[in-house]
């Protein structure tokens, strides 16, 4: 047992020894060697074992190898810890001519951190043969050189080192030269050929020798160079031409660099003594130098200037051939060039414009331009014919000798072709014939003969009611095929009366963009369909125009709350008062709340709810959900208050729903105390209610028929217009409404008709749905099995 202080000291001492041991281990160096050009996967050494590392700890300790520059030459297999060759190792590329070549690796492991230095020496192999600077060496020697003359040669080089780079030389067998190879201590002295026999050019103008260099590697590698010894001659022969006079015919107006003739001179000498330079004689005229050129090496004469028969019918050219000997010798000849006449004058055209630009409504036969042609040649070379570009609505008419008129041959249409590039060609009768062309641009002037046209003659636009004033609903676009002011389209409304108001009080059209704006909020209850025309008119003289029909359907919004109707007795619009006998049975209708909604569809479909009585007392009455009829739920007794005050909530099915509250005052009377007048009134009211039921049934049937006819009409219209592009508008259509079954049977027609919506998104939809009745009749009700009364204003606005 040690004290705390002793434990702390021991731990620090132990840590110090661990770090010292790791440092001593990491500071060691392992040395391997590998031959160059070893194959991929060649074993180098068991590096993990040699470094004292376990195979199982290579991966956990993040064993890795780093090398400066060429890290891809060697790799370590982490499974067995073997260092192997990963890619080709070229000692000459890696270390050049250096005697020592090694790859230095750093092996790094973590936990704890250790760094090992590994050196892999690359051994040289004899993989490079001796190489001469070239495959052939040309030596020039005068045949007058004395014996024992030495001619230095450049030796071969070997990229290897050591024995692999030591070279020996050998010369092919010959009787003229021997090889002078310096000894080891004479390396500064180059190789050389030593002349052992006099040279004779007439006997041997060229000598072919082979110099071979062999290294001392295993196996031996060799390199060779071809030695070509050319014996130089003494200049004792002058150049001589094949002929002293050369005659050639040359047409006039030949292109530049046209070949004229090739001269041939020969020299019996060799080398520079036999090399010939051709040139014009020094006394040749400057005009010949401007028109002809002779190649100094080949003796080819070409024409470099304009050769004109009218200027000169023949050229006499003196030529000399000079060799390169010392002193130089020369030979002479004469070249006579006869110029042949040719059709060298092309026709000339003069164009005079008369009617440009040409109006597109010009009549055939209108003269557009006058053309005059001429040719300086004579005879057949001066006879000129004119032709015109094919497939143009024009023709050439000869009016006088060498005079032509370009006239209109058929009607023009600027919208099809706005400009014609007419090429008139004049060709003479020479051989070969010459021609000249004149290009005339005939611009067709526009005439206002196209009215603005829209993509389709009629558009359907859906707009929600209560839109903000100035709302953009649609954009009318028309295109005019004419140009400039004839294609400048302006838009306007075709004014008409909509009811008692002018169309311009509802909508307006921007004159330039064609955007249609709603000037005021539209009211579906006032106006369901607004049909009008927009006129598109151009600025031509006279102006042309067309009309586009817009059908603007105003979509209903739930903006009208239910309104209570006064009792049929003709009373005011206040609370409904009714006398009720206590002896009435269960389900007896004692009163009816009547309400209307100015909206349409779901927004006008009303439902009735009885509000709970004050204090939570259960009322002996109920109200029909869709009829508004107030009926008893049980038999009345003395315990019921003589005056019943009922609150009926009338609510439509719009989003959000709007409501109204009706107050119904019921006075309970004993049956014996009911006055006869009340009995008569009740009888009259019952008769009126029965008549109302009959009327409402007929109204429902009529409304269903009209609605079905409207939907079928819209479906047919949409089917005919389904290929038209979607109408655009800033005010989008209403949201589709879910239709539920009702106690009155069950049909509904929403405001979203089968039309393409103004935003153009999604396919058209229809919202006519039919359902069967879902609420059972009340037990014991005298109206069970009958169609409940539905007010016309409740179902359809």
TrEMBL record:
A Pfam family annotated for this UniProt entry: Cadherin
Gene Ontology cellular component list: plasma membrane
Classification via SUPFAM superfamilies: Cadherin-like (SSF49313)
GO terms, biological process: homophilic cell adhesion via plasma membrane adhesion molecules
InterPro entries to which the protein is assigned, alphabetical: Cadherin-like_dom (IPR002126), Cadherin-like_sf (IPR015919), Cadherin_CS (IPR020894), Cadherin_N (IPR013164), Protocadherin/Cadherin-CA (IPR050174)
Keywords, in A-Z order: Calcium, Cell adhesion, Cell membrane, Glycoprotein, Membrane, Repeat, Signal, Transmembrane, Transmembrane helix
Subcellular localization, as worded in the UniProt entry: Cell membrane
SMART domains in the cross-refs: CA (SM00112)
Residues annotated as signal peptide: 1-28
Topology of the protein relative to the lipid bilayer: Single-pass type I membrane protein
GO molecular function annotation: calcium ion binding
TM ranges: 697-717
PROSITE patterns: CADHERIN_1, CADHERIN_2
Residues annotated as domain Cadherin: 34-132, 156-241, 242-349, 350-454, 455-564, 580-677
Cross-referenced Gene3D superfamilies: Cadherins
Role of this protein: Potential calcium-dependent cell-adhesion protein. May be involved in the establishment and maintenance of specific neuronal connections in the brain.
Protein's UniProt name: Protocadherin alpha-7-like
Name of encoding gene: LOC112064224
């Amino acid at each position: 047992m040690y004290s705390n202080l002793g434990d702390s000291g021991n731990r620090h001492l132990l840590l110090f020894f661990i770090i010292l041991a790791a440092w001593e281990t990491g500071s060691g160096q392992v040395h391997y060697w590998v031959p160059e050009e070893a194959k991929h996967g060649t074993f180098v050494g068991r590096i993990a074992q040699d470094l004292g590392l376990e195979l199982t700890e290579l991966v956990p300790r993040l064993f890795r190898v780093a090398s400066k520059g060429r890290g891809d030459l060697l790799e370590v297999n982490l499974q067995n810890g073997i260092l192997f060759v990963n890619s080709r190792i070229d000692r000459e590329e890696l270390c050049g001519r250096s005697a020592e070549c090694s790859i230095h690796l750093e092996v790094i492991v973590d936990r704890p951190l250790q760094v090992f230095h590994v050196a892999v020496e690359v051994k040289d192999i004899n993989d490079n043969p001796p190489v001469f600077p070239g495959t052939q060496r040309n030596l020039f020697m005068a045949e007058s050189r004395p014996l024992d003359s030495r001619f230095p040669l450049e030796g071969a080089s070997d990229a290897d080192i050591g024995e692999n780079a030591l070279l020996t030389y050998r010369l092919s067998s010959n009787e003229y030269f021997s090889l002078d190879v310096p000894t080891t201590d004479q390396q500064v002295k180059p190789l050389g050929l030593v002349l052992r026999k006099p040279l004779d050019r007439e006997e041997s103008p060229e000598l072919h020798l082979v110099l071979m260099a062999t290294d001392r590697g295993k196996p031996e590698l060799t390199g060779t160079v071809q030695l070509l010894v050319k014996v130089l001659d003494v200049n004792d022969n002058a150049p001589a031409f094949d002929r002293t006079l050369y005659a050639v015919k040359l047409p006039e107006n030949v292109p530049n660099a046209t070949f004229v003739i090739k001269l041939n001179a020969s020299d019996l000498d060799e080398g520079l003594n036999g090399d010939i330079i051709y040139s014009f004689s020094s006394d040749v005229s400057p005009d010949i130098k401007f028109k002809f050129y002779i190649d100094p090496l080949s003796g080819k004469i070409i024409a470099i200037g304009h050769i004109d028969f009218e200027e000169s019918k023949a050229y006499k050219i003196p030529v000399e051939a000079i060799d390169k000997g010392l002193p130089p010798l020369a030979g002479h000849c004469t070249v006579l060039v006869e110029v042949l006449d040719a059709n060298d004058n092309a026709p000339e055209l003069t164009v005079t414009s008369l009617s440009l630009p040409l109006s597109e409504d010009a009549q055939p036969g209108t003269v557009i331009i006058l053309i005059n042609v001429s040719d300086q040649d004579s005879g057949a070379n001066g006879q000129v014919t004119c032709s015109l570009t094919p497939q143009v609505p024009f023709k050439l008419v000869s009016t006088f000798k060498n005079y032509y008129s370009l006239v209109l041959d058929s009607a023009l249409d600027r919208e099809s072709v706005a400009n014609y590039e007419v090429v008139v060609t004049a060709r003479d009768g020479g051989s070969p014939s010459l021609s000249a062309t004149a290009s005339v641009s005939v611009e067709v002037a526009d005439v206002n003969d196209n009215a603005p046209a829209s993509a389709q003659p009629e558009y359907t636009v859906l707009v929600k009611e209560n839109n903000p004033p100035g709302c953009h609903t649609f954009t009318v676009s028309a295109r005019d095929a004419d140009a400039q002011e004839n294609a400048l389209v302006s838009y306007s409304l075709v004014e008409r009366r909509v009811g008692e108001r002018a169309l311009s009080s509802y909508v307006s059209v921007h004159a330039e963009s064609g955007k249609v704006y709603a000037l005021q909020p539209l009211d579906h209850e006032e106006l369901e369909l607004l049909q009008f025309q927009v006129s598109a008119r151009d600025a031509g003289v006279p102006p042309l125009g067309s009309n586009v029909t817009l059908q603007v359907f105003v979509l209903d919004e739930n903006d009208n709350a239910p309104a209570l109707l006064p009792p049929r007795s003709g009373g005011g619009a206040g609370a409904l008062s009714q006398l009720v006998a206590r002896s009435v049975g269960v389900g007896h209708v004692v009163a009816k709340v009547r309400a209307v909604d100015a909206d349409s569809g779901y927004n006008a479909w009303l439902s009735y709810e009885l509000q709970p009585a004050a204090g939570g007392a259960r009322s002996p009455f109920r109200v029909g959900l869709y009829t508004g009829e107030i009926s008893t739920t049980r038999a009345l007794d003395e315990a019921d208050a003589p005056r019943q005050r009922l609150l009926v909530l009338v609510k439509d099915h719009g989003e959000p729903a709007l409501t109204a509250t009706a107050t119904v005052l019921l006075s309970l009377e004993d049956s014996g105390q009911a006055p006869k007048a009340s009995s008569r009134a009740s009888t009259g009211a019952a008769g009126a209610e029965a008549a109302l039921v009959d009327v409402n049934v007929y109204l429902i049937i009529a409304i269903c028929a009209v609605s079905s006819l409207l939907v079928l009409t819209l479906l047919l219209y949409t089917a005919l217009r389904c290929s038209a592009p979607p109408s655009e508008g800033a005010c989008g259509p209403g949201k589709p409404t879910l239709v539920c079954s009702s106690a009155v049977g069950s049909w509904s027609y929403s405001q979203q008709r089968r039309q393409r919506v103004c935003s153009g998104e999604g396919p058209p939809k229809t919202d006519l749905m039919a359902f069967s009745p879902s609420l059972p009749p009340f037990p014991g009700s005298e109206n069970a099995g009958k169609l409940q009364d539905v007010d016309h204003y409740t179902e359809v606005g």
